[in-house]
């Protein structure tokens, strides 16, 4: 049996900075939206892949235009600008999906999970958005209708744009895994980023999603941890990440096998050490160590630990010649690692 890899086509920061350069072509929203749609067409592998067209919208918007810890980090940014950026991101998503559907499908069957977390967080600092509840497993609609409340800087949404957004949101969704710390167990470990390691919480969250949304297929699109190891000798012995992956994949498989959660896929972040936003090269998420001076790559202990997990899962799966992320009727869970073009 085969576990097929998945590839992330990454536009990195550009797609969140269309208004950061008033004289640049990114300032023209029509050009921006058309470019994203063309990208969807250029990468048009049609039904060969499952597409996740946007990652970390909330993180990019909130950290770039509100708390200013990531580029472009405007010093005079306000809460209305980050709302504008959310609108840009949603419109780009919708245009890409519209282009993809019209080119390749008459009835694209892509149903995922939508959650209210983005709206809850954005609403805490923004004028209230008008929220409309949709059928077909989508419980929240972000920025399709809004109250401008006499703030003329917030753009109105044209009727045709609203129709495109509604059509897109009815077909796809995502759950942004933001959390708010209410309490903690002193025994919990932390990654080098300061994030808690709570695999039982991961299992419980998957169970909650399963119950809340009626057993929809769940794809864990990003899970991993940062370990600050600057030398290849330290990286080869990254016991912390190896334990992390064993515990989290173990918790996920228990959720699937013991709790009946409909988990279909898992992406480990990431295959290679990468440039981690404002943390630069200090925070290493990769299963493979990268010497950023020579670009030499060395598998870490966690690489072999994750390889063992994948092999065990493939060996335990029976009844199909091949397992793919797009195989909606497969009873098995596909595990893979996430990387970027050019990495």
From TrEMBL:
Biological-process GO terms, alphabetical: carbohydrate metabolic process
InterPro entries (alphabetical): DUF4116, GH, Glyco_hydro_1
Record domain DUF4116: where: 82-121
Highest taxon above the source species: Eukaryota
Protein's UniProt keywords contain Ribosomal protein: no
Gene Ontology MF terms in the entry: beta-glucosidase activity
Annotated transmembrane regions: none
The keyword Transmembrane helix is assigned to this record: no
Keyword set, alphabetical order: Glycosidase, Hydrolase
Family the UniProt entry places it in: Belongs to the glycosyl hydrolase 1 family.
PANTHER family on file: GLYCOSYL HYDROLASE, LP05116P
Name this polypeptide is given: DUF4116 domain-containing protein
Lineage of producing organism: Eukaryota, Sar, Alveolata, Dinophyceae, Suessiales
């Amino acid at each position: 049996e085969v576990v097929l890899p998945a590839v992330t086509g990454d536009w990195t920061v550009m797609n969140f900075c269309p208004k950061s350069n008033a004289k640049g072509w990114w300032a023209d929203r029509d050009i921006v939206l058309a470019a994203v749609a063309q990208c969807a067409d250029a990468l048009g592998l049609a039904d060969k892949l499952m597409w996740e067209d946007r990652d970390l919208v909330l993180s990019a918007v909130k950290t770039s235009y509100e708390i200013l810890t990531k580029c472009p980090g405007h010093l005079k940014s306000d809460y209305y600008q980050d709302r504008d950026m959310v609108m840009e991101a949603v419109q780009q998503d919708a245009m890409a999906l519209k282009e993809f559907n019209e080119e390749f499908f008459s009835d694209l069957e892509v149903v995922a999970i939508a959650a209210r977390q983005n709206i809850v967080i954005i609403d805490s600092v923004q004028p209230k958005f008008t929220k409309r509840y949709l059928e077909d497993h989508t419980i929240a609609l972000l920025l399709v209708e809004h109250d401008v409340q006499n703030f003329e800087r917030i753009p109105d949404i044209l009727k045709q744009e609203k129709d495109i957004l509604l059509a897109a949101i009815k077909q796809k969704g995502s759950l942004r895994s933001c959390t708010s710390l209410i309490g903690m167990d002193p025994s919990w470990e932390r990654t080098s980023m300061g994030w808690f390691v709570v695999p039982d919480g991961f299992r419980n969250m998957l169970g909650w999603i399963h119950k809340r949304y009626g057993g929809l297929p769940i794809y864990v699109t990003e899970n991993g941890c940062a370990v600050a190891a600057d030398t290849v000798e330290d990286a080869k012995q990254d016991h912390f990440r190896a334990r992390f992956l064993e515990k989290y994949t173990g918790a996920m498989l228990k959720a699937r096998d013991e709790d009946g959660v409909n988990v279909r896929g898992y992406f480990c972040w990431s295959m290679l050490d990468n440039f981690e936003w404002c943390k630069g090269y200090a925070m290493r998420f990769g299963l493979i160590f990268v010497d950023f001076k020579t670009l030499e790559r060395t598998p870490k202990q966690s690489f072999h630990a994750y390889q063992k997990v994948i092999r065990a899962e493939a060996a335990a799966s029976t009844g199909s010649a091949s397992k793919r992320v797009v195989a909606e009727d497969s009873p098995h869970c596909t595990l893979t690692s996430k990387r970027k073009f050019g990495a």
